[in-house]
Amino acid sequence: MTRSDTRDADLSTPDGVLPATAFDRRPTFLARNRDVLLGLVGGFVVLAVWQATVWAGWVDPAFSGSPLGALGGLGHLYESGNLVAPTLDTLRSVGLGLLISMAAGIPLGLVIGRSVVLHGLLEPLIGIMYSVPFVVFLPIIIFWFGIDDSARLVIVVWSAIFPLMINVVSGARNLDASYLQVSRSFCAGRVRTLWSVALPGTMPYILAGLRQAVGRTLVGAIVAELFMGTSGLGYVVQAETSNFEMDNAMAAIGVIAVVAVVLTRGVAWLENRLTFWSGSVG
């Protein structure tokens, strides 16, 4: 027997199959979903402490509600029709606002990021509009657009488009120089370069901005419903709080929290699926 035959015999099993290595083992369910499970445990602990303070008499449930009371309030909202329809109204505002923000913010961000002149002119204005809370513009928006659906849509788009644009501009300005070199080698025009080179190259930044925009869009929708809405989860919270139905209000807030988690987790999943080839952009 030669040395190679001896080595092959040592590595082989009686069935002639190589033994499984650590690289062949797939992560367990706990390992794959560790962050989600830890988040659920953390949320359960917070709710348990909250309920314990209510039972101990340290807080008044008439003013703060309680987790168990919120469960009853959730059933009451469902039976009264103040759960499904308002949730769909809020999701409709969020979805439409995101679509408009993406349709306007992504092309504008690419153009501004690839233009030295436009970036110098508009970058400070975009930063100001992003930094100043949009709530301070509510009186002006109401004066211009009234208190109907168009005004609420303006608030939703306003809250989402600027974080998205900031990320897209940053991605366009940090585009890999080799991509642009290939584009110039093929004599591609500016529009072709933006569509075929800049857009795919900035996809990690676009999805990172979208992840921020989703949260801000939901905030904008809820704020608009609180101040000028006649439907939606924000209006339900405002109406139930005005009637001192704190359990119902907490139930609606819980639904808002669930919607926020689902939306942000969905965008994070999409980001991981589409940009697995890229490093994290923050």
Tell me what you see in this structure.
The chain has a domain at 81-274: MetI-like (MetI-like fold), CATH 1.10.3720. The radius of gyration is 26 Å and the shape is globular. Helix 6 packs across helix 12, helix 6 (84-114) crosses helix 13 and helix 12 packs parallel to helix 13 (233-242). Residues 6-14 have low confidence and may be disordered. The protein has helices at residues 3-11, 29-32, 34-55, 61-64, 67-79, 84-114, 116-131, 138-145, 149-173, 177-185, 190-201, 203-228, 233-242, 246-274. It contains 14 helices and no strands. It starts with a helix and ends in an 8-residue tail after the last helix. It is a multi-pass membrane protein. Residues 87-268 form the ABC transmembrane type-1 domain.
Considering the chains and any ligands shown, give keywords for the structure.
282 residues, mainly alpha, MetI-like fold, 14 helices, transmembrane, MetI-like, transport
CATH class of the domain at 81-274: Mainly Alpha
Q: What would the average pLDDT be, to the nearest integer? A: 80
Distance between the termini: 58 Å
Please describe the biggest sheet, giving its number of strands, its sense, and whether it closes into a barrel: none
Within the CATH hierarchy, at the fold level, what is the topology of the domain at 81-274?
Answer: MetI-like fold
Fraction in beta strands: under 5%
CATH superfamily of the domain at 81-274: MetI-like
- Counting DSSP E segments of at least 2 residues, the number of strands comes to 0
How would you classify the helix and strand content by structural class? mainly alpha
CATH architecture of the domain at 81-274: Orthogonal Bundle
Radius of gyration: 26 Å
Q: What series of H and E elements makes up the topology? A: HHHHHHHHHHHHHH
Principal-axis shape equals globular
